[in-house]
Amino acid sequence: LAQLYGPLNSLGYIYRSINQSLVDTEKLMKLLDEHTDVNDKPDAKELVVEDGEIEFDNVTFSYDEGRSTALNSVSFKVPKGSKVALVGESGSGKSTVLRLLYRFYDLKEGNGRILIDGKDIRDVTQSSLRKAIGVVPQDSVLFNASISYNIGYGKFGASEEDIEAAAKAAQMHDRILTFPDGYDTKVGERGVRLSGGEKQRVAIARTLLKNPPILLLDEATSALDTTTEREIQVALENLVHGRSSLSIAHRLSTIASADIILVLKDGQIVESGSHSELLELNGIFASMWAKQITAEKHTDVGSTKEVAT
Ligand code: ATP
Q1: Can you list the residues of the chain whose pLDDT is less than 50?
Q2: What is the whole-number distance in angstroms between the Cα of residue 92 and the centre of ligand 1?
Q3: pLDDT at 32 (0 to 100)
Q4: How many CB atoms lie within 10 A of CB 60?
Q5: Ligand 1 geometric centre to CA of 69 (Å)
């Protein structure tokens, strides 16, 4: 997953970062290494998103010719403004769905289509596509700069008021006020170190400022302490509201509110429906759910602490 989020988190930001000369050079070089081989067509148009409806139409994809397929005839829709969650065991194809939507790879002719508002994403410019998509990874890249800069990064020329409003909606404002210099406090490797949950809230604040119609989310893998978990949930609800989103859910408890849950297995959608529909179906999702409930009962989630990284 890190392979996806390194570049996803950074590509949209690289151009401005260079201009503002505040980026950690070492990190930038690493990110530029992870370029993609996707090229815009000579007649590529700007993507204009009106509804933000996403459609995977019979998508088949393999990373290497002749190797097993990572996705096999996958079809689904994310209707305007709805929340779709992807679940499935490791290697089932969840990240591949997000990578393809962000266009790290193009589908070959005859292997299906990915559409946004009815437009094939291979026919639009990568820059306009990525401008329309916000990404919230589990672990965001922080720059060695002020917390204000790190949040304001989401929108060129963001005012202090914009930044504070985003931090409030992302449930990060009160925490920032405890820092020695408030919004001017330096964070990152050479400043105040933020925990995983705090970094995720910074990413949420950035994305709120970016204000994209489409969201890709990677929800936390491990249990956070209850307060942090609740804060992130509220922040995510503020972000997801009114946008079309695709989330990778590692812990099934976080996606009970999804409009549609897609269950992936070996690159195929094997079940889909709402949480209650899938429980009623009593199939793969229901057994994953039962297993996780039992596992969580045996874990003292309340005492789990976030690890500062
Ligand atoms: P996880 O929950 O562990 O992140 P996932 O459901 O997101 O897993 P994917 O990362 O989409 O799964 O992987 C789907 C399949 O594609 C797997 O068989 C995986 O080994 C393969 N795969 C993923 N990335 C690459 C890559 N860069 N090159 C070759 N094969 C890959």
Answers
A1: 2, 6, 11-33, 301-309
A2: 7
A3: 44
A4: 17
A5: 10
* Residue 142 three-state SS: coil
How many CB atoms sit inside 10 A of residue 213's CB?
21
Task: Report how far residue 138's alpha carbon sits from residue 196's, in angstroms, rounded to the nearest whole number.
Answer: 7
The pair of structure tokens assigned to 261 is: 């849950």
Please identify, by atom number, the ligand 1 atom nearest to the C-alpha of residue 97: 11
Sign, CA torsion 169/171/173/174: positive
Give CA separation, 300 vs 19, 34, 58, 226, in Å. 47, 39, 42, 10
Tokens 């429906």 identify what position? Answer: 273
For residue 135, the surrounding DSSP H or E stretch is strand 133-136
Ligand 1 neighbourhood includes 114 CB (under 6 angstroms): no
Q: Which long-range contacts (CB under 8 A, 24 or more apart) does 30-36 make?
A: 30/6, 31/6, 31/7, 31/141, 34/3, 34/6, 34/7, 36/7, 36/103, 36/104, 36/105
User: Residue 302 has what pLDDT?
Assistant: 43
**Which ligand 1 atom is at minimum distance from the Cα of 1?**
4
pLDDT tens, position by position, 245-272: 999 988 787 788 899 999 999 999 999 9
CA-proximal residue: ligand 1, atom 20 (nearest): 91
Give the SS3 label for residue 168.
helix
d(CA 68, ligand 1 centre) in Å: 11
Burial 246-274 (b: 16+ CB within 10 A, else e): bbbbbbbebbeebbbbbbbeebbbebbbe
Q: What is the 3-state composition of the chain as percent helix, strand, coil, each rounded to the nearest 5?
A: 40, 20, 40
Name the 3-class secondary structure at 200.
helix
Name which residue sits closest to atom 14 of ligand 1, judged by CA: 93
- Look at residue 173 and give its three-state secondary structure: helix
Cβ(7) to ligand 1 under 6 A?
Answer: no
d(CA 233, CA 253): 11
* pLDDT at residue 254, rounded to an integer: 76
